[in-house]
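Fold these two proteins, one after the other.
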Amino acid sequence: MGANFPFHQQEPKALGFSSERLSRITPWLESYIDEGKLPFAQVVVLRRGQIAYSKLYGLRDIEKKSQAIGDGIYRIYSMSKLVTTVAAMSLFEEGSLMLDDQLSWYLPEFANCQVYKSGEFGAMTLVPQESPITIRQLMTHTSGLTYGAFDPSPVGRAMRGAKVDFGNLEEKLDVMVKRLDGIPLCFQPGTEWRYGVSTDVLGRVIEIVAGQSLEAVFQERIFGPLKMKSTFFALPEHQIEKFCSLYTRTNSDPLKKLEDGQNSRFCRPVNMHSGGGGLLSSTADYLKFIEMIRLGGVYESERVLGRKTVDLMLMNHLPGDMASMGQVTFSEMPMAGIGFGLGGAVLLDPVKAQILSSEGEFTWGGMASTAFWIDRSEELSVIFMTQLIPSSSYPVRRELRILVYQSLID
């Protein structure tokens, strides 16, 4: 089944690539599947809006021996965050919210948060909040919020105790956000970088400002204009057969099935609209979305954001790199030389980051090892899709960058 990519295939040489060098991606990709490390993988490399390389290999369900399909649908998890940020920035452009607005203006329960200082769970020493959480801090993960499911700290334990879980599809977004009331922040807002539920809270702010559900906002402002017909929070019945199964890596089993694609919780109605990690999408849809970003907010005459708004998003909004903000590594990636913009990471210094890429590269990924990056200086958009948790299982993102950039010859 074809991918129906809305992009033309072009000879690599015409796009400034060495065909021989670019073809090195193929054995690299196939080895991950043949060695039983990934169920399947899909790579697409766009330059100047045209396909220089595209490869799909493996099984979307190993047990059923179902081949991966070009228009398969995947859990993109945290690649949802950039979609949510774009929606918020479209409201920013209308003057409906400002980046330095206080979160408590929209959600009063965040007006007087306590901040963790020391101690174990049950005997935490808390101090008053010194400055308010802002909308920008939600976008940059400097708000002090964390992920309860992955944080072993006393604050993470408090979140688990309060059942703060934006992956619970039975609950509603507004109810889940209210459960954060009374849970301390991990640090004073703006002083550190910590991955967490900030973007989920941002999604709730969007609902309040727009007076619509997050799903409706996405459809009106992003999915409709970009004709993203395979991106949603829950699978329509006619799309279920395209949904891929999800796997995890354990000590005893490198590919253990976590969820069957055709018997998934996403195949039923979903109450939770998680802007931090709830979206499902296809490669073609997400490529259109990141091409819109690369092109300064417009794709095929449909303008989602203004050019200067996108420029602002792709700048570093931290005082330094993420390593200097307390995040030495993230997933399989060291964070030296890498900053954070609005909705994604920004490469500040390729030498410090020890990676073959360009200053200003904008990137992020998802928990099931999906990833994208945008390099506007080289006119590149690259996407990698698979379905394996955790994303730190293998260094595929770093390896793929090397394979793509070593093949450029113009």
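Now the second one:
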Amino acid sequence: FPYTTLFRSVEVNNAIDNGLWYLHAHMRRFTSGTPSVDYGDWYVCDNNAADACYAGANSGPSAADCVAFENSGFLKTNSPLNPYSDDVRRCLNTVFNYLTPIGISTVISVPQGTFNPDSNHNGVALVTIEGNENYQTGMLLDAIAAAGTPGTLVTPGTALASLSTGSGPGGAYTYKDAIYDMVDYYAYCQAPDDGSGTASGGWHYYCQEGTGDNSASQWAAIGIIPARRKVGASQTPPFDPLPPQVLSADQNWLNYSFSQNGPLNGNFGYNNAGTVWGPYADTPSGMVQLAMSGMGRGTTVGGVNLWDSAETFMRDNF
């Protein structure tokens, strides 16, 4: 048994090493701008063939590749002689170039209450410059949070460095400012409702669009979780950039989109409880949103034990 366990561990680590090496070997590297900045990204296609690329969706996948290195311990703060650390430095610079500020209101009203989505009171939120903003921005948020250096200034010469609404010297923009402003974006951009008066919460593909969507909502949660745990909780004093009304609204959305008595009992639907498209993707999406609220086994939303039911669904049907 010990040999088998060790062998499996070696297999896992070998698979990760192979994956990181593949990413390193296939990264597109270039230098641009004045001052010159080193960039790197990964096209969503085979061999950079235009007909194989998904238009307007480079920022999210490139950021997710960046997280793969960061979560394996390769950070831009490591030795510059480490090629993987250089990859992270380059892809973070690319992330900074994919983000743009938008103005946001200081008052948002939802059935769960009224709140100010502008946590750091600088009047802006950050979002990807590409399409499907709610989908991709969470991946970029995850990459910056995983860098583990919230006080670092954003790289000079990147688009994001031009902002002067940050907490650094002279209003310079830091990683922490970017993280808070991206969480502010998600607080501002929750789906309002589908017109029924019962479905507020969650996120669709675009800001304040229609009803929630568990394909997009998972990426909000995947970005917000490390922003709160790795960055907000590390501040002195600890600071949570996410208003509690956002979590309450998302819990409302989860209860709305959960199928308790449908054809796939125990799953989360796509944009409502009755839509069973992609249940093996949408159900983990609901579960990671529950994790965002610290809700796991034994906890309930609207009187229903969503986590246990979803976990049972995955076990019985996957």
